[in-house]
């Protein structure tokens, strides 16, 4: 801990001034500067102490007895030797303001919005202290932002953002920034939900599937980011829309806006549908999508024919999975397992399966808990809700031992479906590329928690879209850029 000055009364009634430090809760005297018997002597000792503390430093200490030039102020006649302390007449978070302004300009966001100051101020306020649009002027005033806009001006900005196509122009600016700085070869996609403080549904805000099991009206938000987590494209849909139907509109809009022809799209198993994979492939896009574990037995059956069914920790299995149904293009009469090729196997995709002992242990724990619950349901000890491994026939519940055994045989496996040939990307790179999806999840966490994008209090569709543009989507970009520049003061909340 840094040294500081301490005043303590002595037995004689004088005031001793000491330079002390506190280490592990124990105060240690570094230097005893002397004892003062009146205010003038105390002021002199305190001034000496500050010189000791500030030796060789340039420190702004508004609470000390030093004036703005770092010198002790002179004593006024008749003031009893008391030292005048400086008064704080204004304050400005200069470093914070300049950091955000620099990033905002570097990303081209000012030019993209035609220099819209109100839009910029809403973004800045959301970064510093996520609050309502009406409270934005207060947040900006507290940090000393020059000329905060009136709340009515900020509200009008929401409509302006939609009519002037801010989202499209911002997308172009950010795309140009990414391609100019690090290139773009791989994008990650995922979805989340934003709920509303509303009692009734409408054409957009609808009750749908919620991972948090909420029953509030919600919208679905899809986000496309680069492999470093920098957001590139956003989409918004009705709250009851199937997640699998969201990826193609976002990707197609991104392609159309920027003339993209070749790109790798990575998504989790929730996007795994025959229609999605076909659409991505027909758009000449490469994809890596998480495979559902139920595919494993069929995909690995032929592999076991050639290589056996024993797994080693970290093992990667490069095989083939049918595009539809159970049809397979693997010829077991061959001496070795075939390698997927789009020309040779037009009815199949490439499938990569990885095995992990750690994942197997975790999967086994989950299966044991599920099996025990199933037994408890059958015994009447728990309510018969939808329970895995419970089969009901003619009113009698029985334990599905075959399903448990089949699930046990799949523990530790994680699958990935792709249309990228092994000559272009080996199995290890397929797996590592998929694991980059945590960047999308980090973006959603930033939006929901750090930036408090939910709940949403708007009700009109244009206002909701503008909220996503200004209070979520752009913030993800500015926030990541600021964090990447290591200007951590942006995330401080006071």
What does this structure look like?
This protein has helices at 39-53, 94-106, 109-112, 117-128, 136-143, 151-163, 166-181, 247-258, 274-282, 296-307, 357-378, 401-408, 427-434, 438-450, 461-484, and strands at residues 4-9, 15-23, 26-36, 186-195, 218-226, 231-238, 264-267, 286-291, 316-322, 348-355, 390-393, 396-399, 413-418. The chain is of the alpha+beta class and 494 residues long. The chain has 3 domains: 1-89, no CATH class; 91-260 and 426-494, no CATH class; 359-408, no CATH class. α6 (151-163) packs across α15 (461-484). It is extended and about 100 Å long.
Quick overview:
By secondary structure, the chain is an alpha+beta fold.
Instruction: Domain count, please report it.
Output: 3
Q: What is the residue-mean pLDDT, rounded to a whole number?
A: 78
Instruction: Give the biggest sheet.
Output: 8 strands, mixed
Note the total helix count: 15
Helix fraction? Answer: 25-40%
Spatial strand order of the main sheet? 6-5-4-7-8-13-10-9
H and E order: EEEHHHHHHHEEEHEHEHEEHEEHEHHH
* Residue share in β-strands: 15-25%
Structural class assignment = alpha+beta
Stretches where pLDDT is under 50 for at least 5 consecutive residues are 59-83, 471-476, 479-494
Cα(first) to Cα(last) distance is 23 Å
How many beta-strand runs?
A: 13
What sort of overall outline do the alpha carbons produce when their principal axes are compared? extended
Radius of gyration over all CA atoms, rounded: 32 Å
